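Now for a concrete sample entry.
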Amino acid sequence: MLKPQLSSEATMATGTLRYLDAMRVTGPAGELGDLQVSDSRGLSLGRLTGFVVDPAARQLRYFVVEVRRWLSRQRYLIPLCPATLQAEQQTMRLDCEPASRRDWREFDDRLFSRFSDEDLLDALFGEARQSDAHAETAS
């Protein structure tokens, strides 16, 4: 089976973005990887599998949602929009109308590094860590 070649343009565009598995995130509803995702009308979109984040900018960029069909599963990037966690229903309701499924971008995890402990430190203490590093190299 041939694997598609990744363009340098695609990897450059995702260079600062990281994939964070929803099973590594907990909230009032438990592990977020157990959440179903619905649109504002309550129609099921799929299951939340992760997030694409920009640690340096401290921003969530995309939801990663798995859509199951008869014999297949596919993950898609849904651009960030307001969402409501419905803990009792184990559902995250998107408070926007995501574009039609056929317009969603397919998620290719080869384009994203995994969110690491180093990314967490950068997100929490990014500017302070950079200042400390510059001070150490200057002395």
